[in-house]
Write the C-alpha cells for this entry.
Amino acid sequence: MDVAFIIETIAKIVVILLIFSALAGLGTYFERKVLAFMQRRLGPMHVGPYGLLQVAADGIKLFTKEDIVPQNVVKPIFKIAPVITAATAFMASAAIPFWPQFTAFGYTVHPIVADINVGILYVLGIMAIGLYGPLLGGMASANKWSLISAARSAAIFISYEVITGLALLAPLMMVGSLSLIDINNYQAGGITHWIVWSQPVAFVLFWIAAFAETGRTPFHLVANDHEIIDGFGTEYSGMRWGMFFIGEYANMFFISFVISIVFLGGFGDGTIAGAVQLLLKVSFFFFFFLWTRAAWPDIRPDQLMWLCWKVLMPIAVLNVVATGIVMMF
Amino acid sequence: MEHYNVANPYFGVFVLFVLTFGAFYATTVIARLASRALAAKDTEKIKLTVYECGPEVTKQPNRISTQFYLFALLFLLFDVEIVFMFPWAIDFKLLGWFGFAEMMMFILLLAIGFVYAWKKGALEWHNIK
C-alpha cells in the first residue's frame, strides 16, 4: 500500500465522521422544527437565529451534565453500549458511495471509504451489529423498562432484517452484483432505468423495514415514552445518552442513502447534477421519517410482529419468486 | 462511477472501525472529564438508584418473556434461508433453470415450515396469565 492511499482513506473517514456527526446533530434540530410546523408551533426559536444554535446548546448541555452510573448496573457493558451504537452506525457508511468520483488537483478521488464487492451485504451486516447497542445497554441497566426495551429492540431488529434481506434479493437478481457502485451504474440511463419501476413491491417493503431498522415512529417501540419511559436510554445521562441519538440519526441518513441508491437511481451517470439529485432524494427520505412521526401513531408490539411475519414476509418471498419467474421467461 | 481498484479494499473498513470506536470512546472520556470539572454535583444518596417510583430497589433479574425466544428461532430459520439466497440471487442469470428450480424447492420446503409455525401459533402474541 502506498502512502497516498492511506492518507486518502483516513482523510475520507475524517470527513465522513465530521459531516455526519454534524448532520446527526442538525437532524435533531430539523426534527423539532418539522414536527413543530406540522403542529402549528414555531419550535426552537430562542437560541440563535431561528433557533439554529439550539444544537450547540444541546451539545454543551450534554457534555456538562453530571456523569451518572447508577448502582446495580454492569459497569463495563453499560459504558460501552452507546459507543457500539454510534460506531456501528458510522461503520455502515464504508460501502456507500456518497458522491460520484471527481478530480481535485489532478488526483481522482473516489468518495467511498472501501469499495468492497459485498457492499450492500456489508451495510446490512453492520446495521445488524448495531442491535448490540440497545440490547447490551438495556440488559446492563438493571431496570425493567430498559430490559423490556432491549427485548423489543432485539425482536424488531431481527424480524425486520428478514424483510430487508428478502426485499433486496429481487433487485439484486436483476443487477447481479452486491456492490452499491454496480447497482448505481445499472440505473445510469435516467429516470426510466430506476429499479423502483420494475421492483415497486421490493421498494415499499424495504422502505417499511427501514423504519423498523432505524426504530422510527410507526415502530418506535424501543423507546415508547408513554409505556416504557425512554426504553434502553432510561438510565443513561449526558453524552452517553447523546451517543444513542447520534447513532439513530446517522442510521437514518445512511439508510436514506441506501434506499436512494438501490431503488431511486443514486447519482445516475455521475455528473454534478446527478449528485445533487442524490442529495435531494436523501433529504426527501429523511424528511419522510419526520413526516411519518408527525402523522402516524405508534403500533403495538404484537401488531408489529403480525405485520412483519404474516404480511410482509410472505409478500417478500412471493416477490422474489415472481421476479425469478419473470426473469426466466 | 468506476470501481476503485486497490490491493486491499478492506483496509478502509479496518481504519473506519478503529477511528469510529476511538473517536466515540474518546468523546465519552472527554464528556466524563468535562462533567467532573463543570457539572453541579449532588450527594443525595438515592440519586444513584435505578429509575423507579422512589424506594431503593433490589437487583433486577434479567428475565424476558419466552415469546421473544420464539421470534429468535423463527429469525434463525428465515435468515439462514436468506444467507443461502444471496449468492443464488447474484448468479441468477448464470445458473438458469437449474438454479431456479433448486431455489423454488428450497423455498417450498421453508414455506411448509412457515405454515407449520403459523398453524402452531408461533406467530401470535399469546396472553400469559
